[in-house]
Specification:
Number of domains: 2
Shape: globular
CATH architecture of the largest domain: Orthogonal Bundle
Strand order of the largest sheet: 1-2
CATH superfamily of the largest domain: Hypothetical protein, domain 2
Largest sheet: 2 strands, antiparallel
Oligomer: single chain
Number of strands: 2
Distance between the termini: 30 Å
Number of helices: 11
Radius of gyration: 18 Å
Amino acid sequence: MCLSCEKGVRELQQTYKSIREQIIVRLGEFGQVMKEGGEDRIFAELVFCILTPQSRAKLCWAAVESLMSKDLLLKGGREEIVRELSGVRFKYRKAEYIIAAREEFIDNGELDIREKIIGLGVEERRDFLVRKVKGIGYKEASHFLRNVALSEDMAILDRHVLRSLRSLGVIEEIPRSLSRKRYLEIEEKMKDFAEEFCIPMSHLDLTLWYRETGEVFK
């Protein structure tokens, strides 16, 4: 490992130690979504993950909260949804994705996400979401599953995490695109790194995100 990578690892370990309790609290909150949340609350997390590509996470969650408060998450039309996506990039396309996702998970007039994914294996859940939900790739599917506590061992390979993995020597370069094969290869390297330095994967992701943004969020 190069000297700069060793320094980066030491700093990462120090950061993790300082925010570990915050991470535990946040992951506990994620766990309540699937245990106690209604279908609309679970769907809100899916919508958040649909919105996040190339957009700031806080703006995306603010948009989701606005949609929920105005009862548009499950009932809003395209133009109504678009009006609430202030600051979200590609908002017209993403509004269409939200409506398509809503239709995908409605059976007999009722939203039903929990039953459609809870019985699947972890990898099956991710593949199912990528296959069935427009606007959801492996990063977004992993993000959603982590945020509803259905996976603690998946990588959420956004630009923040990829930059950190490169600086730590986990990967040599940031790929221009991520096929399923390439995504899983990097995820495996991240798992090996997490195991070597005794940081759980779900904790590592939030620590890397914290290093880039200065907060433990979503």
